[in-house]
Structure formats: structure tokens, C-alpha cells
Design a protein that fits this description.
The chain is mainly alpha-helical. The chain has one domain. About 65% of the residues lie in helices and about 0% in strands. The protein has 4 helices and no strands. The protein is globular.
Length: about 90
């Protein structure tokens, strides 16, 4: 279940895909999800969805607001979420 999200998140962190590509792919994947996951996993992945939703390609680092974040901030959010997701997986 988490693998498809993790793979996408890792590609973005490694800069194999752009923030714009990540935003589109992740949001599409999350909206169509029918995966079984516990509440904590959902909270982590939903947090990434919310960050992707706030990403704006014209927002520069340091200019983030509650409604717009930069690619740099999005990447930081994804790194944090991936770390949490890996902790959940390792503890299972």
C-alpha cells in the first residue's frame, strides 16, 4: 500500500521529478486511493496531500504563507512525512 506513495515521495526528494510533477501525480494517486491503512498512516499521507495542495510554483522560499508553499518547503514536508512513514513500517 505505502509503496506507491513512498516511491513517488522518494523520486521527488531525489529530484527525479519536479515539484509540479509530484503535485499532480501525488494528488491524483491520493484522490483515487482505495488502500487500506491505519489512521496514523492516513494522517501522514493526508499531510503530504495538503502540502501538495498548498504548493505554488511561483512561491519562493521564505515567501510561504498558510495557503502557499515553495518547492523547497514541499520537499521538506515530504522528507518529514517519509521519515514518519518509514518509522511506522519499521515498527510493524
Amino acid at each position: 500500500m505505502e509503496a506507491k506513495y513512498k516511491n513517488l515521495m522518494e523520486k521527488f526528494i531525489k529530484k527525479e521529478i519536479s515539484a509540479d510533477e509530484f503535485q499532480t501525480l501525488y494528488m491524483d494517486k491520493f484522490i483515487e486511493w482505495n488502500d487500506r491503512m491505519n489512521e496514523y498512516q492516513f494522517e501522514i499521507l493526508n499531510g503530504v496531500f495538503e502540502a501538495a495542495d498548498c504548493y505554488w510554483h511561483e512561491c519562493l522560499p521564505g515567501q510561504e504563507t498558510a495557503f502557499e508553499i515553495s518547492a523547497q518547503q514541499l520537499r521538506e514536508e515530504v522528507v518529514e512525512a517519509l521519515n514518519k512513514l518509514n518509522q511506522v513500517i519499521d515498527s510493524q
